[in-house]
Amino acid sequence: MLRFMPVGDSQTIGSAGEHTWRYRMWQHLRATYGGPFRIVGPRETLFDKATDTADSYEYADPDFPRSHLAGWGEGWLHMTPLIADAVRTERADVLLISLGLIDLGFYTDADGTAANVRLFVSEARSANPRVAMVFLPVIPNVRADTDTAFATEVARFNELLAKAVADLDEPSSPLLLASPPESYDLSRDTHDGTHPNASGEHKIAAAFAEAMYQAWDLGEPYAV
Q: Distance (Å, rounded) from C-alpha 194 to C-alpha 210?
């Protein structure tokens, strides 16, 4: 059985009332992956904007495996110390990772964030030397759209992420860089310029799915 663990920030945990891209990915895998699989992770909740806490179970459709390792306001800086235990405990085989925006916005510059990516990979492999990882670059967002300096930092981090993936890729523990979602539009695919709405959720799931299909022949192309 293949165990997938979504790892991410606010775009991955989602907020009350949403489906999340995790739900869209589960639907896709259920329809296209030929073998048994599970969605795993140490957390299950959504973020509740009304209470400013991650304790909501009010999914738009709660009837799916909701497990994940994601947090509102959490990035590479926060997930790196947690990943080894999560991979070990959940016996994760494939990590679907969408991180970086919160780091660049509040915690570390591109070089510091890229250093945490490399440490994250090392920590994950310490728990499972054969773990596979798919990385999504930082995708379009409203701050990068309006802040030139921040946009430059995002672009630099995405370049460093691509280099880290190329440097650290191993046959026994493959690393894969997904392409940013095609035609991702802040006005059509997000609620607020950052967090995906339903169409954005599909596009993020499609980015992961297409990468795994093209590189590993896993599943099928994503039907948006």
A: 22
Within 10 A of 223 (CB to CB), how many other CB atoms are there?
11
The pLDDT-based confidence of 182 (bands split at 50, 70, 90) is confident
List, for residues 9-50, the tens digit of each pLDDT value. 999 999 999 999 999 999 999 999 999 999 999 999 999 999
Whole-model pTM over 0.85: yes
Closest CA to 60 of 27, 95, 99: 27
Which residues partner with 173 through β-bridges? 170
